[in-house]
Predict the 3D structure of the following.
Amino acid sequence: MSLAPSEPSWTGALRERVAGALPPEQLLPDRQPAYVRSWIYVFGVLTLAGLICAIASGAVLALEGAAWWHTSSVGHFVNSLHLWSVELFFFFMVIHLWGKFFMAAWRGKRALTWITGAVAFLGSIGTAFTGYLVQSNFDSQWISTQAKDGINATGAGAWFNVLNAGQMLLWHVVLLPLVISALVAVHIVLVRRRGVVPPFGAEEIPPERRVAP
Amino acid sequence: MLPTSVVNLNHNGHYVHWGVVQISAANLAVIALMLVLFVVALLAPFPGRRKRP
């Protein structure tokens, strides 16, 4: 059986386009430009690590339920793990944002990389907000009643009702994580495709001239 | 019995007021820590030997 397409097809065209846009050595590189050897470049992957921990601990909380995370020691631990993963996720993401902003990381056809990162950041704030609303404690009741007037004043309250715990739970555990995960995936693929932005004054280093770590 | 917190959290949070700006001491500490880490990340040498690009 030959891998060469025998006749034009959308699957073959898509495969060739993906392979052309993202060759394997660019998708999973083992070499990077020398200027990447700086601590300011590690905050992106630290943010990603925080996101993975938040999703993993959140999945355990979703499986076990509110009574478990409120009453058992292990539940408290996983609940805290979820909170602190998110704290670190935002902590590292803001430093990543500052670093990329001050090196104008949208240079060199990287506008879409910047935009997907910025939208993922805004979406993460919404995800964290709905997370506060579904703690199922007095804190979540207080936050929802404080937030409802502001949300209603925007008109969004008609379909985004912060007093509806079931709706907020689904936003938090399904809709927003899907959007954030998709945006982060596109963001990372774009970073791989365009390469890491060089500092001001440094030239763009093509993949064949990058050094091994 | 659940273990108690290392820090006594059984009181109202501390807030900093500056005109119309009001922020909790905890959030202010986190922002200060982010600024410190940002500067350290720019200045601290990265481990490992340098190679020519």
